[in-house]
Amino acid sequence: MIKMLFAALWIVPSLASEFRFQILHTNDLHSHFEGSWVAKPEGGVQRMGGYASLISEITKFKASALARGEQTLTLDAGDFFSGTIFHVIAPNPSVPDFPEWAFFQKAGYDAVTLGNHEFDPLNRGVKTMFKKMQGGPALVSANILLPENSPLKGKVHPFIVKELHFNSQKLRVAILGLLGPDACTVSRGTRENIHFVGFDDKNSKENWRELLTLIQQQILAAKKLADIVVLVMHAGQPEDDQFASALNGVDLIIAGHTHEVYSKKVDGIPIAQAGQYGAYLGKLNLIFNLKTKKLRILNEVADRAHPIFPNVSHDRAFERAISQYKSLSHKILGPKLPPADKIIFVPDRDYIKAGRVSIDLAVLATSRIRDGIEKAGGPKVDAYFTSSGLLRSSFHRGVPVTFADVFEMFSVGFDAQGNAGSEVVVFQLQPKDFKRLIEFMEIYSHFSRTFHPAFSDSVSFRVRKWGIPFVNRIADLKLHGKSIDDLNTPIILASNSFVTKNFDFVEKKTLGLIKLRPLDMQGNPAAIRDSGLPKEFELFSLSFLQN
Q: What is the DSSP-derived secondary structure letter of residue 420?
């Protein structure tokens, strides 16, 4: 009896010091309201994700936690916008809807940070989009620098503090947001007058010391108001490792940007990321010891990324909203474009985006756009090129590709008038400049986590792994089967403005070694401008539909 009494006296204080709660998290949703095709390990594909299913699962997990007396924080690590036909709605001033934000409101998110793609619609679209943002989760970003007239003024905070309750105990949780250096790099052409501490837009340089100093200051400020700090950042590995190693006072990191599924520890700090497109819902069952001040994840690693399959329950009201958004998207895109469900082609092989885009996908995308330019009445282009990071999805053998799927593949960017899709530009380069550009793109791809060059089938070359950059690394460079060294007239090239806006980046990164001098169609030096051609998703579709 005495032993049992002592045991009870030991257990009760122990339980009283344990605060349990739950975090649900997403990242890189990219406007995928209807989910996406995902390859199965055993072969074939399956549909995963879908916001109506996500809402249902979030609601279920919250209810389950509440039944245990636990509260839930629901967080998103950025890039919730841009990626499907649905994203044409929010930046459009003629309609009041912001579908992505409506999802966050319906699902009951607590905080969201900004990703690089939230700036895709340029200042005009960003201003429109965030004017529509009323209520819902807090927007957190500790390193953002806003101009005085920004629509985000007063709507974005370095961090917020949420108070949770469990067994008559209270826990204050600070949620701090940031945009990582790589995400700053890839968005420098779209952010215009919005900047971020830790990245010098003018000189395209990361400044880790400046960024870490700022975030450490914000963590110290948050710690005065909260018991634990959760860093919700649009940055993935290896940047998340660097933050975990360098910062003091962070208890948990929710990552994004690299579209990966993982749960790991770096220097004792738990880090989790939940993939892409809502195919997985991150789920962390947490316990915080109020005495030792230590945070621990209770559920097994395999249980921390919950797959969202189409056979789970759906939120019927939001399912109806998705259908209405889809009709509105087509109306905004215009009646001249194919309906969203129009089948463009059926692939006879897999064209997979996994890590770096496969050669097959890169060649298919760029070659079909090149063909589409001529079919649309444009000039006969020698080569089309882009960054494989701008090819946003996969095509699967035997699965019909609809116009909505093609739009998803080429969904990045808006033009100066606010229309979806980057402008297609046509210009000329001297053969030696084209060769230098290829040399730069090939070597830069080994330093960038998101860039890898993609060329139409009219271009071929070999890479000598042992070669010296800009000397002998690129070999046998040919255009239409002819050696580039045998050409003495300008080459007609085409790309999208998302890529060509960064031509100055080439000169800066090479310290002036490469100076690209674009020519107009008359062979005169000129700035690259919109060619007036249809967008990439239109040209790709046209190459199949107009035979």
A: B
